[in-house]
Fold Transglutaminase-like enzyme, putative cysteine protease.
Amino acid sequence: MKMKGRSVITYNVYAPTNVICMLRPRRQNGQSIIEEGFNIEPSVPFSEYTDLYGNACQRFVLPNGQVTITTEVQAQVNPTKQIPSPVPGYILVGDLPDEVMYYILPSRYCQSDLQELSNLAFQIAGNFVPGYDQVEEIRKWIHQNIKYQYGVSDSTTTALDTARNRIGVCRDFTHLAISLCRALSIPARMTVGYLDKLQEMDLHAWFEVYIGGEWYTFDAVQEVTEGYRIEIAHGRDAADVAMITQFGNATLQSLHVEVNLLENEPVSQN
């Protein structure tokens, strides 16, 4: 399927502000980038580097006044990968690849080492078969028990906050899911990008878990994990995949996101 994503971000800048952006899509299996655009108005020079997780990061300085950052991507993508039968099982920590170990440790927003979250994880999924069954039970529990609502959480909200308050947005759902999976020694990471199936269009966050020797997508916001996605970035939590990190005096004025499916054209998996 060909899929197009577009985001327009407008800032009011009160003093020159250094920023790191993570707005360009990843190049990876199952996601073939046909074309993309990255534009800053007024135009300023920028540089780019690849972070520890393989995400493309852009660095530049926002000038005084109103600044608009527009990104567009058109890609060939497959629908969300289905869980095979038999379902993937749990991998012992000692058998995990080195590069996966990042995603089994606690992180800034995912305090999987806290007893309260560990107790909740075992309460929800402790009686299920380790691996996929536990992850899916966590995903379903969050979908059914955490209320989706804008304006009740912010950049400081952690998984523990969401577990206690039982309300938040996709970022909060994802942090809680990751924490509960890690509490069961299942590697989990946060992924952000475009999803075609959203009631209120926005840049979206979901989680991926490493089971059966592969990464699989789970989305606690959806009743059933489905749809087409363009991945922009992944990391341990929101600190690793922030859309824009600023070092100065600038205020986000607006964010407009569009997602369109264009035509059927599956991507071959390597």
